[in-house]
Amino acid sequence: MSRGRRYEEPKLNMKKVFAVILAIVVIIMSVFIIKGVFSREQSNGGITSKTYFASYKDNKWGVIDENGNTVIDPSYEEMIIIPDNKTDVFLCTYDVNYDTGEYNTKALNSKNEEIFTDYNKIEAIQNSDENNELWYEDNVLKVQKDGKWGTINNQGKELLKIEYDSIEPIKGIKNALLIQKDGKYGVADNEGKIILDVAYTEITNLGEDNKSGYIVKDDAGLYGIVDYSKNVILENKYQEIEKVYGSNLYVVSQDGKQKVVNSAGEDVLTQGFEQISAILKDGQGVIYVSNGKYGVMTVTGEVKIEAQYDNLVESQTNTFIATKGGKRGVVDLDNNEKVPFNYTSITYNEKGDIYIAEDENFNSNIMNGQFETKQTGILIEINTDSGYFELRQNDEYKYYNFKFEEKDVKDILSNNTLYLDKKDNKYGYVDKEGNVVVEYIYDDATEQNQYGYAAVKKDGKWGSINSSGEVVQEPIYDLDSYLVIDFVGKWHLGKDINMNYYNQE
Q1: Could you tell me the pTM of the whole model?
Q2: Are 23 and 17 in contact (CB under 8 A)?
Q3: How do the domains of the chain map onto residue ranges?
Q4: What percentage of the chain carries pLDDT values higher than 70?
């Protein structure tokens, strides 16, 4: 039956239809993209929402995630390296010949699939600072093919061409790679940018970061300084250049004698010392050494502090942490004692403007910039990013900001679901409202970590609970000799915290 005209369907507005379809497609795509951001595990090292750790069990190495789930079974003789614990790139070393030093490597993802198979070797670039704290350079791996080295990022993109004889980090400096080719050295950053051309017989860092410049040696065996932008700061005419500088002053050796010069190469200070250990922050003086003792003089040669200390380190401007007779104190430029020599260690946190003075029993006096002791206890943590420090005082953990105001743990650890509490010399946990979630039955315990687990001690043994207060690992581990006690699931942090692995034993 045909319809009359009044029932005829109107013509579609195709522009509107197309717009609606396009909007639906965009929404669908957005859903998949968002889902992918939070859940994808790309086969070539995609960023995931998970965190990964090396695991150790039954003398074998594997990988777990932040919930203690096994990602790679513990089956490798050598520790699996995870350069970035937010990225599923796991570097495995195998077939190691300890007599010849030969070995093989491969990279796996979280699906236990081998990735980056075009290379003969794939290695993380490990670096360390003067305190031997280790790290892996960010988003860069070095790869070898046909005897030559280059770099790729964690997604497999080539950064440095595979044409170098060696690629190594400059010790203690992030984002600065020493590249070698045909007997000459240059510097590249982690993204593959050439900072210094491969033209020097030796390169080392001048300061504490990759922007401070580099001490370079030429074919004649003489040293100069080149900055991050390849500008020559000091010509190659010195027998030696120390890693001591400030306010456009540099410590060099020429004709067998150490001296201070400016960036124009002009002499500033040439006598009255055996060695210069530091340029003062205001550029008006130096810390010098004479007969093995440390003192302070101006750049005009006027002695402000006679060489009498075993060591001097400038903290605040014209204020010095001094060592004498195995003890540390603080003196000013006029050699007035600001902090008595009663401590085994004194450090200054510039961002917080606080001094931490520790005695032989590991108790710390926390002082302000005027050397007034504001808090005392065993220092657990200083978090300059969040602006607080944590002390253990009378078997309780207290938090303070850098104004020495006590802060509630709920404000500091605002993402936690449980908070450590103490009652009748026993530890338990409460929620944000103060309701008891875990009864006071533990002899010791830790705050919940970022993965939702807390370590608990009972009858001399350690175990773990989850974010709901449920026991995940019964207390069975003797961890009292460990520097840091931490759990993810049933796995506890290894003894060597620099290695950052978790084990079960």
Answers
A1: 0.84
A2: no
A3: 5-39, 417-505
A4: 90
